[in-house]
Specification:
Elements: H1 3-9, H2 12-21, H3 33-39, E1 47-50, H4 57-64, E2 68-73, H5 76-89, E3 94-97, E4 111-117, H6 128-138, E5 139-149, H7 167-174, E6 178-184, E7 198-204
Parallel strand pairs: 1-2, 1-4, 2-3, 4-5
Antiparallel strand pairs: 5-7, 6-7
């Protein structure tokens, strides 16, 4: 990966430019089908933190179903779009304008669920262990990371974002703080990501 790309993709300005140009390949234009299916089976009201929440489709969907949602992004347009959508839908969402690596300063053992999709693959791979530690810190002792890991079909040496995800090494990375509870190739992936992502649930180990 080129140094200029590495610097740019770690900054809010990199992503803000994507919003301004409409070049948002990560945005599905609606709730993620896999997460929409998963949430139907959650019978209790959950506190859910969505990392890199983007335009907030999943955040709005979960809030409409009665869950306590915190949506995090560091691009200003994402924050503005989520405020607008939440207001138009008449739902309450805690919208946080922040770098995900600063969340430990704001939340400590707070959430039942951390939701992940296209955030882990967007950060500098050198910071993936920092991501694991942060997720562990903001989750309650019995909390879970619910994630779609993408892209699992990309060469690990290729540039990004999105940066490739090797499933075995990623599971090993999380194993310091989490136990793998679920791993499956989802049948509800959108067409352009079919077979390129895996649905996982990691359960936190202790405090």
């Amino acid at each position: 990966m080129k140094d200029s790309q590495s610097i740019n993709s770690t900054m809010p300005e990199y992503w803000e430019k994507s919003y301004q140009s409409g070049d948002m390949g990560w945005d599905l234009g609606g709730p993620t089908p896999i997460f929409n299916d998963w949430i139907q089976f959650q019978t209790n009201s959950l506190s859910i933190c969505i990392l890199g929440a983007g335009n907030g489709w999943d955040a709005i969907n979960f809030a409409e179903k009665g869950h306590n949602v915190t949506a995090v992004d560091f691009a200003e347009s994402a924050i503005d779009n989520m405020h607008t959508s939440a207001q138009s839908k008449g739902v309450q969402i805690n919208i946080v304008h922040s770098d995900i690596f600063d969340l430990c300063k704001l939340f400590n053992h707070t959430f039942d669920i951390v939701l992940e999709y296209t955030c882990f693959c967007a950060i500098d791979p050198a910071r993936r262990m920092d991501y694991v530690r942060m997720t562990n810190q903001i989750l309650k002792p019995d909390g879970k990371l619910v994630a779609l890991l993408f892209p699992i079909d990309k060469d690990i040496n290729d540039d990004g974002p999105p940066f490739a995800i090797d499933l075995d090494s990623t599971i090993s990375l999380f194993s310091k703080y989490f136990i793998l509870d679920t791993k499956e190739i989802p049948s509800l992936s959108i067409e352009r990501r079919n077979g390129r992502e895996v649905f996982v649930i990691f359960k936190k180990i202790g405090n």
